[in-house]
Amino acid sequence: MSNQHDAPRRLRLGMVGGGQGAFIGGVHRIAARLDDHYELVAGAFASDPERSRAAAAELHVDDDRAYPDYQTMVEAERKRSDAIDVVAIVTPNHVHFDVARTFLEAGFHVICDKPMTITLEEAETLAELVERTGLFFGLTHNYSGYSLVRQARDMVANGELGELRVVQVEYPQDWLSTRLEDSGVKQAEWRTDPKRSGPAGCLGDIGTHAYHLARYVTGLELESLAADMHTFVEGRALDDNVNMLLRFKGGARGMLWSSQVAPGNENGLQLRVYGSKGGLEWRQETPNQLVHSPQGEPPRILTRNGPGLGEAAMAAARIPPGHPEGYLEAFAQLYSDFALQIHAHQRGERADALALQTPGVADGVDGLTFITRALASSAAGGQWVDM
Amino acid sequence: MSNQHDAPRRLRLGMVGGGQGAFIGGVHRIAARLDDHYELVAGAFASDPERSRAAAAELHVDDDRAYPDYQTMVEAERKRSDAIDVVAIVTPNHVHFDVARTFLEAGFHVICDKPMTITLEEAETLAELVERTGLFFGLTHNYSGYSLVRQARDMVANGELGELRVVQVEYPQDWLSTRLEDSGVKQAEWRTDPKRSGPAGCLGDIGTHAYHLARYVTGLELESLAADMHTFVEGRALDDNVNMLLRFKGGARGMLWSSQVAPGNENGLQLRVYGSKGGLEWRQETPNQLVHSPQGEPPRILTRNGPGLGEAAMAAARIPPGHPEGYLEAFAQLYSDFALQIHAHQRGERADALALQTPGVADGVDGLTFITRALASSAAGGQWVDM
Amino acid sequence: MSNQHDAPRRLRLGMVGGGQGAFIGGVHRIAARLDDHYELVAGAFASDPERSRAAAAELHVDDDRAYPDYQTMVEAERKRSDAIDVVAIVTPNHVHFDVARTFLEAGFHVICDKPMTITLEEAETLAELVERTGLFFGLTHNYSGYSLVRQARDMVANGELGELRVVQVEYPQDWLSTRLEDSGVKQAEWRTDPKRSGPAGCLGDIGTHAYHLARYVTGLELESLAADMHTFVEGRALDDNVNMLLRFKGGARGMLWSSQVAPGNENGLQLRVYGSKGGLEWRQETPNQLVHSPQGEPPRILTRNGPGLGEAAMAAARIPPGHPEGYLEAFAQLYSDFALQIHAHQRGERADALALQTPGVADGVDGLTFITRALASSAAGGQWVDM
Amino acid sequence: MSNQHDAPRRLRLGMVGGGQGAFIGGVHRIAARLDDHYELVAGAFASDPERSRAAAAELHVDDDRAYPDYQTMVEAERKRSDAIDVVAIVTPNHVHFDVARTFLEAGFHVICDKPMTITLEEAETLAELVERTGLFFGLTHNYSGYSLVRQARDMVANGELGELRVVQVEYPQDWLSTRLEDSGVKQAEWRTDPKRSGPAGCLGDIGTHAYHLARYVTGLELESLAADMHTFVEGRALDDNVNMLLRFKGGARGMLWSSQVAPGNENGLQLRVYGSKGGLEWRQETPNQLVHSPQGEPPRILTRNGPGLGEAAMAAARIPPGHPEGYLEAFAQLYSDFALQIHAHQRGERADALALQTPGVADGVDGLTFITRALASSAAGGQWVDM
Asked: Short name of one Pfam family for this protein (chains A, B, C, D) (predicted)?
């Protein structure tokens, strides 16, 4: 078990969003519990006070810390001696910014779902705030928590692929192939609603994950892009398919595809990276293997916690090879990494000193820049635009 | 999220075993936490009192409930008003029996790792005790917690495969291909030591899992078997490879292979079931898909929480299709199912009234019968023996 | 066996190119033999007369029909009563045009490797010549000979995918990741030499295959494209990686990637097509299965000659399901289809009356148009250009 | 192209069996043509003279060499100056022996389908005859023609797996899951008829292939076996499922499963071999890859004609890696190897001097011994019997 060590007290976690019918709130709670570094003690779980209290009752949260809204929550918590250490923001996208700003200004660490904000300006405002306050800010680009994603990142960084040439990333889904948003499915409703999702649909929901994964593993910076965004399902306001060409600084080229109208694809996130010395391929749906192809040699199947892995990958695995870990474990890995950084901060160390390189506010700004530029390119008919 | 509902209080969990260097104890703890139905409050984590206390400190267990041994623990806990509700037994095999008996006799519910005991007599003793006390007894044949294993079981029970003909089950590993037990690896040491593992090595460690999975999914009872057990690694006292022919009541035939000396296999548990109307194939290392081949039609890939599943499978999944769940989630599923039964018991209902059909003491007796008969067959040169 | 029927005489086949050290000539010969519709009787196998005669001796071709060059061959053959029925052109690209024109003008049917010519003008000249003479012209876009590619084409045409939305095609290889052209490998030499390959490297060699496959299966016409072509290996004159965005008439969008510098990819041709009712995925390296995902249902694995296939697919398979057919069989399928059309022509029927829809001169023109427009787009920095 | 070299004349091939409705005859003919070492010139294609002549007409065989029966054929051919060099026997099993004996006694080389004969006595008679005459006898255990099967054999022989421990081989099919023999399917009729198939059904049809493959790759000799044969489909006279335990000389253990009632399996022949230093896994349905797992290292995917292969594998491949070869190419490989040996014999060299180690009469005797012992074991209730 990789995460067993001298245990500081569990961090007190608050949550904004994540009431009944929500999906990602429950994921954050499991992720927080899994490695036992947090206890959920407070929340504004829903915009309706009664529903917030009902959620709290289900979640073993004391009734007096089931808040009707996040403003009340921040005011009440700042006065408590046992105040929360950190708040997790798991609302629809359009609410992230106000909540994050409010908690940061009140001195709380923040864990925020992605995309960080709706606009680039909001993202930059948060970045300044984080810089100014020195507080911890974690962004749950959760795929970066997979053990073999970290292995891939290490291998690239160590030069095992040589000079990078081609980066192909894709994230196809099929669940929005029909007008599911008309069927009362809450997840579909807000994700296809510009008021709650912002101006990017599929691009913001999963395209940003694909983009982040490519950046996280390769370390490359994007120089320019040409985006062809489209809405296939009639009557839908936001894009449901994104095709994109990428040019990275230093010369590597790539493509990015994200789609929510590709039948047969559930969460087909896939990254393929090719350099002068070899290639790497990883698929999210079978995350416990990573195929490494040294140029001119037979491909090798690296397995989570199996032979031939580096330290970063080993540190992000819980159980022996062959017993699969999945999405929740990867999400939990981020929460555990965040906890280490929050504890460090509480000991008076600067949180970023740990160099865990988990996704943070800078990734949020980068993601919004990516969204903004892709929208600009697509609006111009798919022309190339600089980042 | 399938496991969100009106929440009764968390069950107070005690643990025997699972100190530093242990593997399965940590798994049980994550499994207990994952769906938030338990809190770990007490334990006799190690045979050495100091190591037990050190483990407790790491695990957020109060020092006064870190017991030096299980006898002390049972005595102390039975006197508390906030006593544990249930104890998890995660020691090496040879200790299971005494601990389970002691806690049952003191009126505690029990969750026990497998194989349940060393001898069939011990297993039958526990079964009588459970029958007499009416207490809950859960056996962690954890692979039965996978969502698609439950789907497979349902499909067989509903007659979708027709009359069963052939059952092929295997569980190959490679980690004991060399004399790892000489290298100070604790997991290897006790598993190859007859004093702690009992008379069955590979057979008891993973062969029983394969046997249980076949029984769980097919519902078939074994009639007779012919076992060819062998030890390939020189100097090892217990079997490290088991080949077996199976005849089931009603006429189905099968084979079982378990091995710990098959390089390239991590936890290659695989079940294939064929009937007059179709076939099913499931592999533990890619547990989020189940291939169903109706005779004369193209095979269909069923995915966890995807289209075409029954209720049992849906109830044992947490997150949408395409985001993989793994070993820990399957293990957690058993813990959650156990919690439902313990709560029912505490409300005065008979635990088995829920018909969740999770593995229990009867499976433990069946497993020990299987081990005993396989050993007899192999000792007789691989002759057929009746169950 | 699908190809057994009343046998007309074997067609007499001549060949230009395909001497020692060539690759594709041998493939054409096996393809011609496999279903027994041809016998090789004449050839100008190499530019050097001695090497042409040596090749003939190896190939059981009579010495007096081992020609020193194609001009001599055409003159000699047109005078024979047992003249060849058809010539196969398997030279490097730059020679295709002159040979094809010469044989067509002399009244011979032609089978030509792809890309058909170096320039679009040449392609159009051949198209006019074929139109004028009424002769048969087959272009070996061989992947269209795979049984399950034909199944995919049928399913799209029958509306099983609904309205097409997204088409993703790729053809990555790795064999030119290093400067193999400096190592005396003949295949690498001419393919990276603009004089012999024309202005397109990877694009012409395999990008055109990917493009043809997408067109063949979907029936969609390309409206516009944006191409980002690049040469990664230093000192190479032609592109070795192509990333491309595609817009089809009618609204479907797509991407095309072809690469010869992607380590771990041998011939990773893959086509994925998604429509409003379902999706299809096919990979050339495992060509005996086609995954069909009806929206909202479990994916189905269609197998070559297995259950659920249409007539076109059945007609293009030789052996029962589960015994894999491969590249040579797909290539042979084109040769067999070509034979049917040549026999029809010889009976006085118009060759195209058979509607076998095998690749022909129109596909050659289309391919050169594609190459020409892609080069224009890339030269303009990756801008969108109309077809 | 591996098979291009100084070409001796094509061997003149005769065939017994293989008329309309037959399956394996057509396969033999394609196999003989593929590498261009044979021409089919004579045959007794069917028991009915008219049908034999009709088949000849389809196959470009001269009418005067379309014989009404094999006796007439052998008499006529032995008198011709252009007599056949070799006869291929592709009849149902029960005819093999008489035809083979007759042609051998008349001095012809023989290529025979498997199982070689119905009884062990017949097999031994043929072996003596081959020994006495010195003629070439090839047995088409065609899976031994796959390039990567030869690679596996080489790796075992070179000690790359260390000392062999476990051999798991299986060959499941599904096509006889119902009473197909009642539907007028000729292939099903004779295979389930003891008069034409002999006393072994599934065992003789595909179990012998599995056995041969295991022996071919490992080089191990079988010491004893315990067979549990069963007939699941009501009214069928022969076994349709075989489960078997194997003990090899030297201590390795194994299992063999062959079935024709396992829905979802087309030709699922699979071999897995494990030794003290590593493991190998190969599947017939994806024959272009072989997974090699050195103990303690990541598994490596060897591909046909890809990096890291030995000479034997390279010699048995035609086209570059990534373009799949299949069943017909493997079958053709045997025919090409046979041709080399027949040519050697005709030059006065002893055929076996080439040490190509293709399957021959000794393998036929071994196969019949295996069948005989398995039948004996099963008849005795699945008891162990020595080979």
From this structure: GFO_IDH_MocA_C3
